[in-house]
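Blinded run. Sample ID left blank on purpose so nobody reads anything into the name before looking at the predicted structure. Input follows.
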Amino acid sequence: MKVTYNRDKYLQRTYGITLKQYNTMLRKQRYKCAICGKKSKDSKIAFDVDHDHLRGIIRGLLCRYCNSRVLKYLHDNVVIGKGLVKYLSNWIKEVENG
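Blinded prediction complete.
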């Protein structure tokens, strides 16, 4: 299984985890993106390994959109993330209240 071998080596080299550890994480997340909750529509497309770039610690598995678009613009900044949640929550309340 050349594809499995290559994926395993890539994960070990890049993130320090094995394919078995990746699959365990995926099972724990119920095969869903840790942010949006969407399942991968194509089993050949793997979720991205999200990690803290400063410490190298793995946080979870994300769909390509959440990893490259959502988190990218937050710059790992919790204050910005909380501001985003507050902004959207307030907007939803306004819409629901008319």
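Unblinding after everyone has recorded impressions. Strands lie at 48-51, 58-62.
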